Amino acid sequence: MEDAVVFGATGFIGRWTILHLLEQGRTVTAVVRRADGGLHAWLGEHGVPATRLTVVEGDLTVPGLGLDAAVEGPAGVRDVFNAAGVYRFGMEREEARAVNVEGALNVLRWAAARPGLRRLVHVSGYRVGLDPRPRHPLPEAELAALYRDKGAYEGSKAEGDAAVRVAAARLGVPLTVVNPSSVIGHSLTGEAGQYLGLAGLVRDLWTGRLPALPGGARTFVPVVTVDEFARFMAAVPEHDPEPGGLHWVLDPATPELPDLIRLLADHLGVRAPRVRVPVALIRRLPSALTGADPETLGFLTEDRYDTGSADRVAASAGLRRPPVADALRRWADRLVADRFGAAPAVRPGGFHDVAGSRTYLAGDRTSPRLVLLHGLPLDGDSWHNLLDELDADSRHDVLDEPDGTPASRRFGALVADLPGLGRSSPAAATSPEWLAELLGPVRTRPVIVAHSAAAAPALRYAAAQPDRVAALVLVSPFFLQRRPSALTRLLAGPLLGRAGADRLAAPLLGAAPPPESARRAVASAAAGLRRPGAARRTASALRAAHSPAERAALRTLLGGPVPVHLVVGELDPLTGDPGPVPVTVVAGAGHHPHLTHPAAVAEIVRRVLLGHEIMTGPLPSP
To answer: I need a surface site. Which of 1, 27, 495, 602 has the fewest CB within 10 A?
Structure first.
């Protein structure tokens, strides 16, 4: 029999609530609108068995929720959690009401019919529920004014909150209302799941579209991490002694909005806006001019909230609030990694100080056997195809551990965006100096795999510190290949700045339909190139790399003490003599064989790793 039932189970809050209920040993039924929604797979990825989870389909917008008798009848339902809601700006009133008001009432009525019900936990919002004597239904004139003033989303949350509280009192439902502030990513991993509200402000900061900050010096947009809030939800039935509670769940230590934005700007390596614009002025200006969504402005206030009752429940349950500044930084890392919801990250990374650059890194910082450096105009995501091959190709299980650990994890990989390129901010240091500092904490002798222009810092680092590198794999070494035309180099900045993913894909990947993973890598690069200064810096790096003096200097480094293996595409052959350095030609490939032919390049990397496995072990102690 079901012990707990969760509505909105595949949403951001719902799935984390289920995870923590299962961790408590609860038996859970998840009500979803259609199919599984990937819930079982998501729980598996987070290390939580789903053996005590049942997933059923239901519809909050119809009376009875469309649940069959197997779910309607059990006497074992003790706790019902309603995390369902539609969170979107720009909706019509009835669209928002269908779930946030009528759907919430349908859940309450269904819960009221459970004979063994202990608690209904309803998720409301921190800007609603402040009236100690809610009224519902409201006269149409008042209702119309509510939606006109607050917009469809906040208006529906305010009406839904009042409707649930009034109906619960009338029906005798043991109700607890929880009012979360802006819910951000997981406190440890930053894992996100919604990208509106404050996340939209961070997106504008990241993309250079936040010239001024809305609000004043004391504007307060509090946050709570999704894991803290979900643990609180799961704890309410046991640790909130009496129903009827209204709990504001947020971190009072959240920095005021200008300080919060400065904190994230410093972390991401971008400029924080210095100008603040009062909300009252923004309301008077056309949204086409300000770029502000009128519905978001109601959240920009100086109000503070009483968290006393929530703090008592949290203390009873032994819950501790995570440090908010660290949580905000990790959340920002994940927002950038996920491209703010456009493409969930395969291997999420974060920002670190390296030689004055806020450098975007993913993977193992201290014991990698592979260090992967991207070429132009790409970023570190361009290596995902190759890493997927190292993980998934069972034909080469000689590289896997007996316990099934994939090769790429056995050898470890550190993937970095070069300074001033991709997601990394510029550095005053040279690229070789930056690479030396990046690899300073590394305790192994990695194989460095560098594509195109990244061959230059890789070769110089290997020449300067040969005892710290096992081998180099240089993919499409530009200094031994045909130079682009002077006109192409001159126009690279303007062209790159305007290039979308589709326009960029053809010259990078060729005419043949590329793998979907390659298109994702190009889309990531195109998004990065639209950031302020990114296309200009990429074009400058392209021009510098192809100077005759630079090409000649790099050729002299090929004969150094570190073994080098060259990889080139058949359609972009070498034009210079590599001397005795081994060369592998990838049939049918152009300048980006790791994107178009990742299996072939992965095979070469495997062979190099096997040939230098002893050398890639830990460095000797000093």
So the answer is: 1
